[in-house]
Amino acid sequence: QVQLVESGGGLVEAGGSLRLSCAASGTIFSLNMGWYRQAPGKQRELVAAITTGGMSNYADPVKGRFTISRGNARNTIYLQMSSLKPDDTAVYYCHTPGVWGQGTQVTVSS
Question: What residues contact residue 72 under an 8 Å CB cut-off, 6+ apart?
């Protein structure tokens, strides 16, 4: 059974940076992984994704500010978030097909 464990969330001022980490454990069938976020009262939305081959894509609101990457241990991914805005405040979830992490809170103060 695959488990995803996120870390790195927290409180940061607008304009600041944070890096989220997600480590997958268990029997992993797919290295297609991604980050989603859900703000209060809103639907969960894709933030960024990376394929097994290393191709990445981003939601328009975060393009140029966020970078998704894979660690040397290919079951680990990161989300480097820069120039953070209050609108980025949400619970961020790591995802691989069929599996969600528990989420990590990111709060950006104005």
Answer: none
pLDDT in tens, 39-96: 999 999 999 999 988 899 999 999 999 999 998 877 899 999 999 999 999 999 999 9
Query: Which residues have a Cβ under 8 Å from the Cβ of 32 and sit 6 or more positions away?
Result: 49, 50, 51, 52, 96, 97
Neighbours of 84 (CB within 10 A): 22
Give the single-character DSSP code of 60: G
How many Å apart are CA 33 and CA 48, to the nearest integer? 9
92: helix, strand or coil: strand
Which of 25, 30, 68 lies closest to 46, judged by CA? 68
> Which residues pair with residue 63 across a beta bridge?
none
- The phi, psi pair for 60, rounded to 5°, reads -55, -40
Residue 29 is predicted with a pLDDT of: 65
- Give the amino acid at 108: V
